[in-house]
Every structure is written in structure tokens, then in C-alpha cells.
Amino acid sequence: MASRLEAQHLYKVFGRRPDEAVEKLRQGAGRDELRAGGTTAAVIDASFTVDPGQIFVVMGLSGSGKSTLLRMLNGLLEPTAGQVRFDGEDLTALTDRELRDVRSKKISMVFQHFALFPHRSVRDNAAYGLEVQGVPRAERARRADEALAL
Length: 150
Description:
Helix content is 37%, strand content 21%. By secondary structure, it is an alpha+beta fold.
């Protein structure tokens, strides 16, 4: 069975000369050494696969890189190095337009401190994801009503 999501040697470095920092990390440098040089290593060599139907949890202390990792997985942040594959497609090689299409139809994230749109009805809030996907208004309303009736 093919993996649904693959992260291969992901790095995210913020600051000056991130590519050089990744090379130093690969050679055994630590976060403190990089920090002294003005860079921050948020994610270092993350590799894993998630199979269809598998529940996968990312846990860690505040500031440990969880949100940065998730943002790389859905294309909101570009990895400094490494590759993200979703359903076999290399997300790191997609154009902005292609990436928006993937995010609107295949992969997304729920933010920790999300909020409803105060100017929309409950139904319109429930149907918002379908709107982003381009689903016609009547079908959005029908599907939102079905979901809200549960």
C-alpha cells in the first residue's frame, strides 16, 4: 500500500544563509551553534510516512517546531531542504497555483485559535470549505444542512 503522506529529510532554518546552516546540521552542528551565527533551526531532518487511514500525531513542547512542520506539510512554508509527497505528488515542486489547488481539495489544517466568520451564518460557516473548493451554492447549502442536522 502506498503512503498517503511522506516527509523526507525536512529542514526549516530561519535567518542568514539557511542552506549553509542545513549543511552544518548534517555535519553534526547543534541548534546553539547555529543560533550564535544568527540562524534558527526550527525543524531538523524530519522523515516519516503516514499510510491511508493511519492516525498520526505531532506532539512536542511549545516552540519545538510542530507548527512549522505542519506548515511545510501543507505547503504554507517552503522547506529549506527535503521533500513532501502527498498521494505520490511532490508538493515542494508545485507552482503556487498548483499548491493552492492541492490545499483547497486535498490537504488543510485547523488552526489552534480558529474562529468563525462573524459576518456569516452558521450554515455559511459550515459550508465555507466547500465554497473555497468551488462547490456550487445550492450544493453547499444542501451539504451544510445535512452536516448540521447530525
